[in-house]
Amino acid sequence: MDSLLRYRSLVREAAALRSGADDPVAAARRTCDRIDAVDPHLLAFVPEPDRRERLLAAAERAVATWGGATAGAPDRPATPPLYGVPVGVKDIIRVDGLPTRAGSLLPPGVLAGPQATVVDRLVAAGALIAGKTVTAEFAVTAPGPTRNPHHVGHTPGGSSSGSAAAVAAGLVPLALGTQTVGSMIRPAAYCGIVGFKPSFDRVPTAGVIPNARSFDTVGWYAQDVAGAALAAPVLCDGWPDGPDAAPGRPVLGVPVGPYLRRADDEALAALRAQREVLRRAGYTVVEVAVMADFEEIVTQLFTMNRYEVARAHTEWYARFGDLYREQTATALHEGHAVTDTAYEAARTRRAAFREELDAARRAAGADLWLTPAATGPAPFGLGSTGTSVMCLPWSNAGLPSVSLPAGYAANGLPLGLQLVGPYGSDPAVLGWAAGIEEALRADGAVAAGGTGRAEG
């Protein structure tokens, strides 16, 4: 359904708002109009009866605080980078004035707490919180109601489903999500947008309902790499001043072996085509035999994941266990069955895996890993959010990753290309991603404007 897709450039909107060519109140009004028109079909946002009144009031406060700076008023602070930009926030991230439900039936007061640090940063940067976006229950596996804006019969992925769909549909130009295993990158691929998951702990998780603390990472969605890069200095710790561009073209490593064989035939065919596009554009692509013990890696991650999520919910589940959905309750029961000894063994194996993965990359002379962002296009149906296996090893190692739109499957649904860098290389990953995005666009694999749909 093309009517559900609209391109919104974060870079252009932010520039127009900061220059005074656009007005935060007008931007807030347009955002509410778009949500009112589209979201009844998409269900990306958590319902909020007073959204328009709240958002317009926030826009007026932003104008009162910073608006004069665009006209050069000397008594106003400098206009911040996200002045007047509407942003969606995944509903496991606490926002003052909005209840946190985490996709669950638990009383919102039980989940209440101080506003998340990452939201503090958005507000300080001048952003307007457009509302809470739908999540799988507690960001585990029980899907929310959100539809894929490319075809409402297909999943948008999970657990950051609402945020990904909201950006793809042009409800907002920027939205926050989180990834524990594949909850940022997979929805980006399914919805045909850019998703960025920073290195583990690069963005504070204070004020975020935990899934598995050893893996939980805050990330965000935009329509293109330039938008993702604009948000990075606001949200990330220790982001360097100056341009994000990395020197030269990176050497790209394709991780051949059991991991890559988890992708379906269409995703693998697309990867071969994408590799050829990049070779023609001057990139060196090497194959790296790695993760021969991939099944053990999967087991190790889920041993840690289930152990941690079960313990994060000990108190809540004891009080409200009958309100949890079956998929979530099953995950908690699995976690409580994991012993302390098994958990510590999995942690030890994880540390070794990180070192092995990095050593293999360096030995091959690769700068970035190049893989499918998902096993294929979004599956039909809303009962499952798809598999996160293409993201699993990189989340396990805490590495920064980005999903780029990379063409379409035979059924017309988007495909994504995943780039993964060494730990802490986040600015370089986004800098290199911009060049790869441009190479794909120049070849026609991705239309300019992310989704390739007409801007409205």
From TrEMBL:
It holds the Pfam family Amidase. It comes from the Bacteria. Signal peptide: none annotated. Residues 29-430 form the Amidase domain. This is Amidase. It comes from Streptomyces catenulae.
